[in-house]
Amino acid sequence: MKKVVKFGGSSLANAEQFQKVGDIIRSEESRRYVVPSAPGKRFSADTKVTDLLYACYDKAEAGEDFSDILTEIKSRFYEIIKGLNLDLSLEEEFRQIEADFKAHAGKEYAASRGEFLNGKVMAAYLGYEFIDSATVIRFDKNGNFDADKTDKLLAKRLQKCERAVIPGFYGGMEDGTVKTFSRGGSDVTGSLVAKAIHADIYENWTDVSGFLVTDPRIVENPAVIETITYRELRELSYMGATVLHEDAIFPVRKEGIPINIRNTNRPEDKGTFIVESTCRKPKYVITGIAGKKGFCSINIEKSMMNSEVGFGRKVLQVFEDQGISFEHVPSGIDTMTIYVHQDEFEEKEQQVIAGIHRAVQPDFVEMESDLALIAVVGRGMKSQRGTAGRVFSALAHAHVNVKMIDQGSSELNIIIGVENRDFETAVKAIYDIFVLTQM
Ligand SMILES: Nc1ncnc2c1ncn2[C@@H]1O[C@H](COP(=O)(O)OP(=O)(O)O)[C@@H](O)[C@H]1O
Ligand SMILES: N[C@@H](CC(=O)OP(=O)(O)O)C(=O)O
Questions:
Q1: Which residue numbers delimit the ACT domain (predicted)?
Q2: pLDDT digits (tens, 9 = 90+) for 380-397
Q3: Is 206 labeled as ligand-binding?
Q4: Is the C-beta atom of 274 inside 6 A of ligand 1?
């Protein structure tokens, strides 16, 4: 049996957490490939090491003195090394990092040093081999991730070692330039390693006992999902369920490797299994609720719009020309509404509006900002009549005004648009009607 075990920042924030991780790894011989993140928050008001590194980089780039922040980063690692009684010095590494910051080695290099150093600590603590991810996670000369090259490099390197630590979050280009995945990207590294070694299970260790029906920062103590499919998870991760990075699913999905979300602080809990498919009936009609704030809508009205073939393409071409991706495009006979991320759209707002007028000569265009999108996801919804009705009656009872409704063609999810200020109320109302009433 071969397992890949990824430990997020919350599981590696201090020496005490490291000891829990060590116990978990030593308790099962199959836990042979370890993917650590950088030390996370020791308490809610704390700062993740990765965020300290970004701040350090910003100061270095501004030509300001960054020694205070670098000292704070050093103290975080020395606290862990001391707490574990490790005979390990990172002085040489920190000297190199300080020199590289001064030489403006790049933002992604800077951000990756948290995982790099924590990988060194983890390897020393476990007595495992340390593999620098820049040598096995490959990005091409344009800075795009190269899945095939990575798979070959990982498989070749890992067949030579029984046990290893592979730091999460980053990789490298052929010329040694360090690149990172997007935030939360250590999940992706774990998935890539699991694929390369054909692992039996990819265990993703965090600070909650599995994938919860919704964000515990919105609903207190939400129910744990026992089994979820990759398709359901992808919808929820994409819509903000941050417990797993949205791109961590593809590598293991190809190999049919299950992911097991576990709690470092409660290792006895079974957690959640993420699988390709299951005949297990879901405990609740819905599997999960996730969402994000910070969207805006551009509503276009034109009489007889539906008779103009290519109208939609022309409008979306305007967004493409401005490099703006869109989230949803609900439309009616004379209307078309495009939902986009507000921060991506705001700076190009006027160019887009002018472009739309030139492209399709609308009767009028109006915009609305400060909107949130919520995804209600569940493989059980397909066979359960009246789900959408229950969602909207729950929102009506909670006095939430629904701005948009979109159902994915797969009937796997319902997307609802509400105002930002109603986001938490809406999530709670949906959770209550589908979960609390069935508990
Ligand atoms: N649906 C969800 N299920 C579980 N956790 C969720 C969900 N949505 C948001 N979260 C949040 O994600 C956090 C775990 O992700 P993260 O903070 O990245 O942990 P780690 O440092 O272990 O990677 C949880 O503590 C929880 O607050
Ligand atoms: N440390 C990186 C990568 C990561 O995945 O972290 P975590 O596992 O703590 O979410 C970040 O903060 O984005």
A1: 376-439
A2: 887 778 888 889 999 999
A3: yes
A4: no
